[in-house]
Design a protein that fits this description.
Main location: membrane
Distance between the termini: 63 Å
Subcellular location: Cell membrane
Membrane topology: Multi-pass membrane protein
Mean pLDDT: 78
Protein name: DedA family protein
Radius of gyration: 21 Å
InterPro entries: DedA_domain, VTT_dom
Order of helices and strands: HHHHHHHHHH
Number of strands: 0
Length: about 210
C-alpha cells in the first residue's frame, strides 16, 4: 500500500494528497502518517510547498469527515433504536435507552471529542459519525475538524520536511505511537464495557428484587 500511496502522490501532487487523505479518513486502515510525512519530504525535491501540502491535506481531511458526518446523519438515533429492538440489541444487551444516553453524552462533550479526536488514530476518522448522529452544528463541526486536522497535518508534514529522505523513520515512530494509543483505547473500551454491563446487571437484579417483594 505504501508504494501505491507514494506513486499517487508523485503523479498527482496536491490533488493526490487531498484524495488520499480523504480516502484515509473514510477508510482508517490507510496510514495518514505515510501520506503526510512523504508529502513533507516531497517539498524538498519538488515544487510542492509545506503550506500547500498542509492545506490540501486538510481539505482532504475535511471532505472525508463530511462524508462520515453525512453517514451519521443518515443513521439517526431513531434508526439505531429500532435496530436495537431486534435480536442484535438483545444479544448485545443494549436497548434504545442506552442510545439516548450515548447521544446525550456526545451532545454535552462532542466539541472537545471532535477536536482532540483528530489526534488519535482511527478515532480521528470515526469521530465524525457520532457527530452526525446527534446532528452536531455543521459550522461548529467543520471549524473543530479544520482546527484539529490542521494541527495533526502541520506536525506530520513538518516532521517529513525535517527527516527528508529518512521520512520512513518518522512513519515508524508514528506507527508505534498509533499502536500504543490503540492498545490504550482498547483497554479503556473493555473496562468501560465491563463497568457498563456490571452496573446494568446490578440495576436489573435490584429491580427484580424489588418486584418480588
Amino acid at each position: 500500500m505504501q508504494h501505491w500511496i507514494v506513486q499517487v502522490m508523485n503523479q498527482y501532487g496536491y490533488a493526490g494528497i487531498a484524495f488520499l487523505v480523504a480516502l484515509e479518513n473514510i477508510f482508517p486502515p490507510i496510514p495518514s502518517e505515510v501520506i503526510l510525512t512523504f508529502g513533507g519530504f516531497m517539498t524538498t525535491y519538488t515544487s510542492l510547498t509545506y503550506i500547500g501540502v498542509v492545506l490540501f491535506a486538510t481539505v482532504g481531511s475535511v471532505l472525508g469527515a463530511i462524508v462520515l458526518y453525512g453517514l451519521g446523519r443518515w443513521l439517526k438515533p431513531a434508526n439505531l433504536e429500532r435496530f436495537l429492538q431486534g435480536k442484535w440489541g438483545k444479544a448485545l444487551h443494549i436497548n434504545e435507552g442506552d442510545v439516548s444516553k450515548a447521544t446525550a453524552w456526545f451532545s454535552r462533550h462532542g466539541r472537545p471529542a471532535v477536536f482532540f479526536g483528530r489526534f488519535i488514530p482511527i478515532v480521528r476518522s470515526l469521530i465524525s459519525i457520532p457527530a452526525g448522529i446527534v446532528h452536531a452544528n455543521m459550522a461548529r463541526f467543520l471549524a473543530l475538524t479544520i482546527a484539529g486536522t490542521l494541527g495533526w497535518n502541520a506536525v506530520l508534514v513538518y516532521l517529513g520536511v525535517l527527516a527528508g529522505a529518512s521520512w520512513q523513520k518518522i512513519v515508524g515512530y508514528v506507527g508505534t505511537y498509533s499502536t500504543v494509543v490503540v492498545l490504550v483505547l482498547v483497554i479503556l473500551a473493555v473496562t468501560a464495557i465491563f463497568l457498563f454491563y456490571g452496573r446494568k446487571q446490578t440495576r436489573i437484579k435490584n429491580e427484580h428484587g424489588v418486584s418480588q417483594e
